[in-house]
Amino acid sequence: MTAALVVGGGTGGHVNPAIAIADALVASGWGDVALVGTPRGLEAEVVPAAGHPLLTIDLAPFPRRGQRRSGLWRARLRAVGKLVAGIVSAWRLVGRERPRVAVSVGGYASVPVVLAARLRRVPLIAVSYDAIPGLANRLTIRLAAATAVAFPDSTLRRAVHTGAPIRRELATLDLDAERAAARRRLGLPADRFTVLVVGGSQGSGAINAVVRDFATAHAGRTDLAIRHVVGRRNAEGWAPRLDLSGLVHQVVPFEHDMASAYAAADVVLARAGASTVAEIGALGLASVLVPWPAAAEDHQTANARWLADVGGAVLIPEAELDVDRLGAVLDDLRDPARRAEVRAASASRGRRDAAGAVARLAVEHARAPW
User: Fold this and answer.
1) Is 268 within 8 Å of 285 (Cβ atoms)?
2) What is the per-residue DSSP string for 169-224?
3) What's the Rg (C-alpha) of the chain?
4) Residue/partner pairs of 213-221 with CB below 8 Å, 24 or more apart
5) 49-86 burial: b if 16+ Cβ within 10 Å, else e
6) CATH class as words, domain 173-349
7) Strand locations in 253-320, DSSP E?
8) CB atoms within 10 A of CB 11
9) Virtual CA dihedral for 143, 54, 169, 309, nearest 10 degrees?
10) What is the structure's pLDDT at 127?
11) How far, CA to CA in Å, does 30 sit from each of 33, 105, 197, 288?
């Protein structure tokens, strides 16, 4: 028997909040907490490493337009078939685990367990940390006893403002105290203006291309270092510059130590996924946010505006990001006084205790043991 199921996965934007909520539930005394995802998502790697059991259901994401029509329909039929089988598997899983509560962080991996939990009368908590919820989350919200939301002005059904959950190691991180040690751990120079580039857990081809051109144009600079997370699918063909006689450009396919990466950075250049924006705000980091234009209902732009509208980030649409624009923004943020202003505005939006707030909401709605 499992006291609570935390459901969802696929990318870091779903997996990292799920781990944070599971950590908070365990810390509150709920020792039997399991995460549910797919065997192929990021959760298969990071959830066991975080010390939580992972239960899996075999699913395929529902494909969007962008491939040949015949291939698109075959992929959609395959996804529907796996979804039906997944609902049957989820029904059995929920019956076997007998949870007192289920918490869904969204993504296609959450749908079968959400439906099974509802059918088995397990109280359901939806976690909606994007400014505009995705399709899976919209379904969950309709079935949920409560919706934990990141934004205080949310109009979602049964909304409770908790903030967006961030990982425990980030919630307790002191950026300024850890900066020197973090740069040593990552092999970064101690005295350079340092930029962290992250394009989400999968990386961003568009951001990578601009940063590659920027690094080439500024190869001789001895005052600048870049820690560049390119994404595993984009990792081939890079030539890192690590010679201290010029620009230091570290290239890594995946960042396993985000706490050190954030602590080492003066500025973060990133996509505007909900988890990334929540982490930047909670830590009070200065950032340049480039929303992914293909995100459903342009929700990444809405996420970025949450920080940018109060001066807590610089928002650059992808179509406007080039070497010159990036250079001008980084030059502006090199000024310590200017950067301090942005950091203070960013911190004013952030919340470090969101995972605990979601855990308390889940406990409040949990039913008695079976």
Assistant:
1) yes
2) HHHT--HHHHHHHHHHHHT--TTSEEEEEE--TT--HHHHHHHHHHHHHTTT-SSE
3) 21
4) 213/322, 213/323, 214/323, 214/326, 214/327, 215/241, 215/247, 215/249, 217/323, 217/327, 218/247, 218/327, 219/246, 219/247, 220/246, 220/247, 221/246, 221/247
5) ebebebbbbebbebeeeeeeeeeeeebeeebeebbeeb
6) alpha beta
7) 267-270, 286-289, 314-315
8) 18
9) -30
10) 93
11) 7, 18, 36, 38
Q: What is the pLDDT of residues 107-154, one digit of tens each?
A: 777 889 999 999 999 999 999 887 777 777 788 899 999 999 988 878
Residue 181 structure tokens: 């040690």
d(CA 220, CA 285): 27
User: DSSP letter at 122?
Assistant: -
CA-closest candidate to residue 339, choices 314, 321, 303:
314
pLDDT digits (tens, 9 = 90+) for 142-151: 999 999 998 8
In the chain, the amino acid numbered 296 is A
4-166+353-365 CATH pick, 3.40.50.20, 3.40.50.2000, 3.40.140.20, 3.30.1520.10: 3.40.50.2000
Per-residue pLDDT tens over the stretch 345-355: 999 999 999 99
Tokens of 119: 């059918």
Distance CA 203, CA 191 (A): 27
Collapsing DSSP to helix, strand or coil, 60 comes out as coil
CA torsion through residues 315, 282, 358, 200, sign:
positive
- pTM, entire model: 0.85
Residue 64 is predicted with a pLDDT of 59
Between residues 14 and 368, the one the model is more confident about: 14
Higher pLDDT pick, 156 / 250:
250
For CATH 3.40.50.2000, the residue range(s) in the chain are 4-166+353-365, 173-349
Length of the chain equals: 370
